[in-house]
Every structure is written in C-alpha cells, then in structure tokens.
Amino acid sequence: MPVTLIKNAAWVVAFDGRKHTYMQGADVAFEDDKIIHVGPGFAGKAEKTIDGSGLLVMPGLVNVHSHPASEPMAKGWNDELGSPRLYQSALYEFMPLFRADAGGAPDMEAIPASATVAYSELLLSGVTTLVDMSVAWDGWLDTFAASGLRGVLSPMYRSARWFTKNGHVVEYEWAKDEGIPAMEAAMKVLETAAKHPSGRMSGMVSPSQIDTCTPGLIKASFAEAKKRKLPFQIHAAQSVVEFHEITRRHGMTPVEWLGSLGVLSDRSLIGHGIFMDHHTSAHWPRRDDLQDLVDTGTTVAHCPTVFQRRGIALQTFGEYVRRGVNMAIGTDTYPHNMIEEMRHVAIMSRVVGEDVYDVRSTDVFNAATLGGAKALGRKDIGRLAVGAKADIVLVDVTHASMRPLRDPVRSMIYSAAERAIRTVFVDGQKVVDGGKVLTMDLDAASEKLEAAQRRAEAGVKALDWAKRDHMKISPLMFPSAKG
After folding, report:
1. What's residue 1's pLDDT?
2. Which helix (DSSP H) or strand (DSSP E) does residue 250 occupy?
3. pLDDT at res. 101
4. How many CA atoms does the CB half-sphere of 412 hold within 13 Å?
5. Strands, DSSP E only, in 250-391?
6. Distances 447 to 8, 390, 443 between C-alpha atoms, Å
C-alpha cells in the first residue's frame, strides 16, 4: 500500500509504550490505516511526503460523550439558562423545549443538519474517534460514515421520560414495557454499525439516564454489553435533582446504586459523575464513591462546559486523577470543540481546587487520548506508535496564536485551540486540510440548522409548562430596536 511520510516534524507527541513523550525533528509514516514508523530517520520509500518542519504531529483526540443530533440546535438559546428551583440544571424544564418542531415532535429535517455541524466542529478540533450518543434516526450510520470520523454509535433508550409541571418538581412517566423493546431496537442498530462497509464503526450500549431507567433495564443493558464485548455508558451523578431522586428511591448514592446492580466495571463509563458523596452540594454521609470507581475500573466521561455555564463543577478533575479514576473527556454540548473542552477541564479544576497545581495539562491531554482509548477498550487509538491506527492531527506551530513557541500542546490548549489545526487524518484518510472539512458541507448544514431553530421557536410556548415563549425564556442580550 502507498506510504505517507511526515518528514522532519518540528514536534511529535509520540507514545513510548507507557506515556506520551515529545520528539523533535522526527518522522511519522503510515501505510493504509496503520502507523509504521515514529522516530528519526524513516528509511523506507514514501509515495507522498509532507514537510513537517512547521508542524506538531499528535494523535487524534478521543471524545467519549457527545450528542450531535440535538445539541447544536440549542446554540444561542441555552447559553445562560438554568432552573433556579431545580438546582440550576436546564435538563428538566428547558432542554426539551428546544429540540422539537412546532408540534412538539422531533424535527427530522433538523437532525442530519445538527449532526453534520457537530461532526464538522469535532474534526476541526482534532477529534478522530467519537462516541455519538443519540436517539437512533434514519440515515444516522451513513451520515456518520460520510463524515470520515471513527465512530462508536451509542443509541440511547430509557424506561421513562422526565418532565416538570411547575419548574420545581421533576416527575417521571414510566413505560409499561420498561424500555426493553427500545433496547432491543438499539442492539439491532449496533449490529448494523459493526457491519458497515466503512469499517470505522462500532457500538456502545447506552441506557440513557440512571433516573429514567428501571433496574431491570440497566442490568439487561449491561448484560448485552458483556455479551457483545462492548462498552457501556449511562448518565449518572449529573444533577442534584437526580442525586436526590436516587437517594430517595434507594437510600444510596447514584454510584453506590449502580454498584449494587453490578454494572460498574472496566467496560463501564459514567456520563458526568459529578454529584458523588464527596460533593459539597450532595450533603451525604461519606462512604467513598470514588473508591468504588477505582476498584471497578469504571471511567468518568467528563464534559465540563455544559455544567460550567450553570455554575456547576466537578470537585475536582485533579482529585479524580490522583485517586486513580480513569478519566476521559467528551463534548456534551455546543460548540463541539474538544480543545476548548480540554481548556475548561484544566482551568475549572484549578478554580474549584483553589490550587494551580490541582491538575496538569498532561493529565488533561492523557484523558483526551489514552483515557478515552482505555474506556473504549482500545490500544490502537489515542497514541502515535507503530501498529496504531493512522488517526493523526497536524498542528501549525508557525500560526500566530501558537507563538512564541515553547511547549506546543500547552500553547494549543490554552491559546490557539482549533485555529492552528491544519490537517486531520482518520484511518489514513485526509478529512481536514487547510483548516477546512473535506467530507461534509458545513455551511449548507449550518443554514439548515438555523432554519430549524426558527421553526422550533414557534413551538416553545405550547411545550412550556408556564406557556412562555422563547424570548421570555431566553431573551436576547440587548433590546431589539426596529429601524
């Protein structure tokens, strides 16, 4: 197969078998979808050579938690919105209002546009492997495959829907079938994904939220994950409302209850994992939820941005790392920008910990690469090493936002973000070049998404418990004067 050589790279984030390490003036070569050389002096023949003298070569980022089919739709609506009587969360009162057409049904025209926008943003920020947690929709697999991303499809399902009639009490409407038929349908999606001709798709078993799933559905889902040798993820410990609901039902913390069901393991991911027994908002007797995660090998999928907007934070990322929890990172919300998410991880951990040394940038980058790969049970992604997948990101170290250049990954995280990313390869195929997505039409998708948002605005008043329109719920920053 033809070989591509990135020759004499200014910087390479190489994997030495245990950890990432910097190399300077090194070569990276890949053949088809595999890396065949990392280090100085590649001696083989290359069909294509890329001058690496102005580049940082790093592994593609692994995003373990995202909702591309819905989250981009809320941009501009949900930036500063939360329910004061539901502990600042926007989950129960507001988020369901911004995901439907005027009749309250899912806007099927908006979903592919939303997903395309998210996939594009992710690629532009260096993500090469993505866990897509969406309710299954027509055309999902082919749209994902067309993006060029390496995909872990994670169709969500549940036993109940949540709602509020007054803005301060969350209620649950339970299905008589517990969501078992929906789980079975999700398993068929996973089977189809595994057979997709792209060869870049796999699956994850994902009952939606701990408080919307019966014990039977959660245990049945975990059994499916074990049988199919797939990872398992559930939203848990993501709000004070949920913490109180689970302790009310079971007299146990969310983590403790999941442990009692036997679903904490090295194939398990907890989406968010904020409100555990040590969190100051929980006011719960300490029993050490963190140790349960360490003992079972369970991963926390940390997505700071969506919570930071509402004054909510993990306590703290650095503490979880020091205790030995496997940490991985996702983009739960817009913008689907993995590098900005990494920056938020680092800065907020230090703010909450009141210690600049609470977390190091190394910990954050590890979570976005090696931690995510470990959570997915893979040793061939999130690293630049011989035999690993050719999921490679090229960063322009001559970009003004990267200079003066001293530590390139640190400069990318804290200063340049996606602006300096030049080229992205997934499975050896170029999907971003010159800072432009090659596989999708981002501009066209953005126009469709904006039109869908206008349609959704018309339905907000009918869906809201207090019959407020969208401008009442989320007013513009400034008064609008008619000219």
Report:
1. 80
2. helix 240-250
3. 61
4. 29
5. 268-272, 299-302, 326-331
6. 41, 33, 6
- Which two three-digit tokens encode residue 337? 């920008």
pLDDT for 287: 87
Q: Are 154 and 208 in contact (CB under 8 A)?
A: no
What is the pLDDT, as a whole number, of residue 288?
96
What whole-number distance in Å separates Cα of residue 183 and Cα of residue 303? 25
Whole-number Å distance between alpha carbons of 140 and 137: 6
Amino acid (one-letter) located at 59? P
Question: 330 and 65 in contact (C-beta within 8 Å)?
Answer: yes
Residue whose C-alpha is closest to residue 238's, from 313, 135, 345, 338: 313
pLDDT in tens, 216-231: 999 999 999 999 999 9
Query: Looking at residue 483, what is its pLDDT?
Result: 57
Which pLDDT score is estimated for 96? 86
The one-letter amino acid code at 46 reads: A
Distance CA 457, CA 18 (A): 51
Residue 406, CA distances (Å) to 131, 141, 179, 282 in order: 33, 42, 53, 42
The predicted pLDDT at position 100 comes to 62
- How many other CB atoms are there within 10 angstroms of residue 356's CB atom? 9
Distances (CA, A) of 421 to 6, 30, 220, 407, 434: 15, 19, 42, 16, 8
Residues 277, 67: Cα–Cα separation, whole Å? 27
Phi-psi region of 136 (alpha: psi -120 to 50; beta: other; left: phi over 0): beta
Give the Cα separation of 132 and 442 in Å (integer).
18
Q: Are 181 and 141 in contact (CB under 8 A)?
A: no
Against a cut of 0.90, is the pTM above it?
A: yes
Provide the pLDDT for residue 102: 57
Give tens-digit pLDDT for 50-98. 999 999 999 999 999 999 999 999 999 999 999 999 999 999 999 888 8
For the chain, which residues score pLDDT lower than 70? 100-104, 483
> How far is residue 127's CA from residue 417's CA, in Å, rounded to a whole number?
12
Report angle CA 29, 64, 337 to the nearest 5 degrees: 75
How many CA atoms, within 13 angstroms, populate the side-chain half-sphere of residue 105?
3
